[in-house]
Design goal:
The complex is a heterodimer of chains A (about 325) and B (about 90). With about 325 residues, chain A is mainly alpha-helical. Chain A has 14 helices and 2 strands. Chain A has helices spanning about 1-5, 15-55, 60-130, 155-160, 165-180, 185-190, 195-210, 215-225, 235-245, 255-260, 270-285, 285-290, 295-305, 315-324, and strands at about 140, 145-150. Chain A has a two-stranded antiparallel sheet. In chain A, helix 2 packs antiparallel against helix 3 (about 60-130) and helix 9 packs across helix 11. Chain B has one domain. With about 90 residues, chain B is mainly alpha-helical. Chain B has one helix spanning about 1-80. Chains A and B meet through helix 3 of A and helix 1 of B.
Chain lengths: ~325, ~90
């Protein structure tokens, strides 16, 4: 048989390519022998059939046929075993190669994923640095009228140190006072706090600057706290007190006619305050009668009102009003 | 006596022939059994080889897709080098 000859091929090969080439040639030769084995078996069967029918010595033909069948079966088993071993080895080798390639691809994917995560992290950190977190600071009013945010304390200190001289300090104080008086409070404080805290903030601001100008803040606060009339509007404490003090007439019949004249700064205030004031004036005649029992204070108030200058209307008026 | 001796020899020959026939049958049964075993081995080998090749083909398909995806990602990254700019 040709398969036996192929099995004795010289196996020489210095490197892997030659060995693999020889193995592939052996595999192809084995496959070719398996293909030829079918025709050989068919030809052997025909030969033994003819010899059995033609020859008289059937026993020897049968014995030869038996030996040939056994050898052919063993040879077929050997060929099939060799071919299947080769095929299994080849498939296992390819499976190992595919597994190794999968491992490499998984490694590449993991590296790529790590790069992507790193890029995402870096981009996220960059974007997070761009975002400005909201910071709320106090507002400081400068004499030039500009509003400076209190976040920069160094600038504030430098601004404060620049007011070392007394004249500049007085100028700054007057500017702040005019700013507080002239600027409408709801515009500044409406979006920040509701009405009850606004009253507190305004009082605190008034307190801080009136303490500098030697005013009496404690007395004012005490009087406002004692007064029974509490309105939710701004500066309602002083407005609530004013009818009791300001509307005190020299004669009882002129009380209602004098009341609008005693507020030169009223056009800057809201009409609701005025209406509330008038309502309070109408509803409380008894309090007015009690207020008439203080003629000396009303005289002082009238003198102050007559002697006040037009430019300092609000200061003197509020000073006297706050004293009451 | 000759008839009796001829009958005995015939019986012996028939017995020998029957014995040879049973031996031939046994041999054929052995050969057929081994051929069946060989056939079963071939069938089993075919099934295992087919399953191995199927799994290998599946792995190769999956690997091919993953490689295509990696190739697209790498081509996209190389097409946009600004993505790697720090």
């Amino acid at each position: 048989m040709s398969a036996a000859a192929t099995m004795h091929m010289p196996r020489e090969g210095s490197n892997y390519d030659e060995i693999s080439m020889q193995q592939s040639m052996l595999f192809s030769n084995n496959l070719q022998d398996l293909k030829n084995l079918r025709t050989q078996l068919y030809s052997a069967a025909e030969y033994f059939e003819l010899s059995y029918t033609n020859d008289g010595d059937t026993q020897s033909v049968v014995e030869t046929l038996k030996d040939y069948a056994i050898k052919a079966l063993v040879n077929t088993v050997d060929h099939l075993g060799s071919v299947t071993y080769k095929v299994n080895e080849f498939v296992d080798e390819k499976v190992d190669q595919v597994t190794e390639t999968e491992l490499r691809v998984a490694c590449i994917e993991q590296r790529l994923r790590m790069c992507q995560e790193y890029m995402d992290h870096e981009g996220r950190s960059q974007q997070s640095l761009v975002i400005n977190t909201p910071k709320f600071h106090k507002r400081y009013i400068l004499p030039s009228g500009e509003i400076k945010m209190g976040g920069n304390l160094g600038k504030l200190k430098s601004v404060e140190s620049s007011f070392g001289e007394e004249a500049e300090w007085n100028q700054f104080r007057d500017a702040v006072r005019t700013t507080i008086r002239e600027t409408p409070p709801p515009l500044l404080r409406k979006p920040v706090l509701p009405s009850p805290p606004q009253r507190k903030t305004q009082r605190s601001a008034t307190f801080s600057f009136s303490s500098i100008s030697n005013m009496a803040p404690k007395k004012e606060q005490d009087k406002r706290a004692v007064s029974p009339h509490r309105f939710p509007l701004l500066r309602s404490g002083s407005v609530a007190i004013r009818p009791t003090s300001v509307s005190r007439p020299t004669t009882p019949s002129k009380s209602r006619t004098i009341t609008p004249k005693r507020y030169p700064s009223e056009p800057r205030r809201s009409a609701s305050v005025r209406a509330a004031f008038e309502k309070e004036a109408q509803k409380e005649p008894e309090q007015q009668q009690q207020q008439q029992q203080q003629p000396s204070k009303s005289k002082r108030l009238l003198k102050a009102l007559l002697s006040r200058r037009k430019t300092k209307k609000d200061e003197t008026l509020y000073t006297y009003l706050d004293e009451y | 006596m000759a008839k009796a001796g001829g009958g005995i020899t015939n019986a012996v020959n028939v017995g020998i022939a029957v014995q040879a026939d049973w031996e031939n049958r046994e041999f054929i049964s052995h050969i057929s059994l081994n051929v069946r075993r060989l056939f079963e081995f071939l069938v089993q080998f075919e099934s295992t080889t087919k399953s191995k090749l199927a799994s290998l083909n599946e792995k190769l398909d999956l690997l091919e897709r993953r490689l295509e995806m990696l190739e697209v990602q790498v081509s996209t990254a190389t097409a946009n080098p600004s993505l790697f700019a720090t």
